[in-house]
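For the sake of transparency, this paper describes our internal protein records without simplification. An entry from our holdings is shown next, in its original layout:
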Amino acid sequence: MIEMGQLLAGPFCGQLMGDFGCEVIKIEQPGTGDPVREWGREKANGESLLWPVIARNKKCITLNARVPEGQAIIQKLAATSDFLLENFRPGTLEKWNLGYDVLSKINPGLIMVRVSGYGQTGPYSYRAGYAAVGEAMGGLRYVVGDPSTPPSRVGISLGDTTAATNACMGALMALQNRHVTGKGQVVDSAIYESVLQLMESLVTEYDKAGYIRERTGSFLPKIAPSNIYPAKDGQYLIAANQDTVFKRLAEVMGQPELAADPRYATHIARGERQKELDDMIGAWSKTKTTKELAEMLDAAGVPSGLMYRAPEMLADPHFKAREAIIEVWDKHLGAIKMQSTFPKLSDTPGQVNWTGPDMGEHNDEIYKGLLKMDDATLKDLRARGII
């Protein structure tokens, strides 16, 4: 895979592909590189703590794609590549003579994976589109947060990573089709559509019932009980909205009669009395510690759990048993912890072979090894700022 573009929407797709063995050659502008190298609220030794994760398993080369000489090199790479991944504004690659119409003639089996804010077509396609805008247009921002406050944002760039995940899925679908037809194609993943895809029946509810979802805070309307409840020493999530599960919760609470009470016996009835039910459960839960709640609810088979942060994740035995968080070596930061590769495959699991490389770290390997350039050519390309 040739990875062009920067930040998160494209590179997260490259991370997913690289996690499972795809050779990802990341192209960065000489001298500046991907801005993610500098991003992140927290740094260690002056180094970004996002770069080691988002660029793991990738081979990084420098190349100026804005000049004809750089474009010619990308065409050579594309001739033997399975994928080209990019997340520039639509039309940029065409302007650089690197559109699919050009590259598919060089390599008819090439799969071009394109991630953008609004997609490659339509009246908004030319607009700059970051995750925040896509999350708003796709409907997510409006329903996130407390009803007493303006719409909130999720604390991660969910629009970017969702669009990148869709792009990865699309790339694998296109690869499967190529096994049958021998032909590549374009995968067009838009941030706003990837968010829209998550929105369950939001559009259909308005279309058929005139209902517009609003912000509800910690619960979903008519899904009860499923909320965050007070404990003696913190907050605890309990999800018991299914009839059989609610019956088990009622028994744990010492009020088994609730499950037979017509006011609470069914999913629909509980939804109609959501606040009343939440108040009742909260009055019981605050008499217990989070440890007591965990033991009681787990024994009864009632889904529940704490609100995890990084410290809880690192201490949790389930995370450790499944190796959900791994420790890898980074040349600048030493031993660092990060999320592992997901999903888990029984025969061909993913792995992290190295963290985000230095800028141009793999120039010699790619230019000398893959493209067979000699030292004199490389020296000339460096002198002219092409690599």
About this structure: The first strand starts at residue 2 and ends at 3. The domain at 226-307 is CATH 3.30.1540.10 (formyl-coa transferase, domain 3).
